[in-house]
Structure formats: structure tokens, C-alpha cells
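The instructor's notes for this session suggest beginning with a concrete chain rather than abstract definitions. Hand out the sequence below and ask the class to guess, before any prediction is shown, which regions might be ordered.
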Amino acid sequence: MHTLFLHSKIWRNAVIASALCLAGGLASAQNCAATIESDDALRFTPEKIEIPLACKTFMVTLKHTGRLPKLAMGHNWVLAKLSDLDGVARTGMLAGADHNYVDPKDTRVLAHTGVVGGGESTSVTFDMEKLVPGERYGFVCTFAGHSPVMRGVITLK
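After discussion, reveal the predicted structure:
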């Protein structure tokens, strides 16, 4: 009887430990994604994303909460080093709508979404190996004329 009790106690502890590990894994997975809203007033909300260094990949969902169509008020989300945002915005604008305002040859672009209009959303998942701890990163909308005001900052933690 004592052996049966001991084995059931070990089994119970193993089940509890497994459940805690699974819960920890789910919590980590939930922290490896962010939703950014954009609108017809040229805003990103929030303007700051914190990305845990423990993430292997990170997913950003861009949700356009405005009403205007993408031809009039489209938005995208483009990730680059903070020091590269202005250059990425210039080359993106020149690339035009056919390329979602992102130059496909611009190696400074680390990740980007397509352009969405009011009521639409899109997502991008990128490999965290592209980001270096200690480097400063940001995001920008490269739709024509939006980059001066539609910007945000990435913090690796």
C-alpha cells in the first residue's frame, strides 16, 4: 500500500510539473506577438512594441481600424533599424503600390506587411535572429507621405 501511495504521489507531481511547463510555454508563445492598429488619422497604436529575447519568431498583426480604402489611406508596417527608417521610407515610396511601398531589393527591410485599407488586417512573422540585442529598431508606414508621422519603436527585452 505504501508503494502504491508513493507512486501515485510521484505521478501527481509529474502531472503538475508537466502542466506548469505547458502553461509556461503557452505564456511565452502569447508574448511573441503584437497587434498594431492604424487608422485614417495616420496613427499607429501602440507606438512601441516590446519583444522578449526568448522569442524565436515574432508576429505582428496590422489592423486598419479606419474606413478609407487602401488606395486613399492604406497602411503597411515595415521593420528596420531606427537609423535606416528614413532611407527605407524613401525607397519604399519609390517602389510604389505594386510592391506594397517596400523595395524588394532593400536589405535594410527586416520584415514588412502588405498594405491594408479600412477594416482590413494583415500579419507578418519574422525570425528573431534578424534582430541583434543592443541595436535600436523601429517601424514605419511607407505608404506615400505617411512615414514622417507613422513611426514606432521596438524594444528588445
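Then share the key points. The first strand starts at residue 33 and ends at 38. Residues 1-7, 10-30 have pLDDT under 50 and may be disordered.
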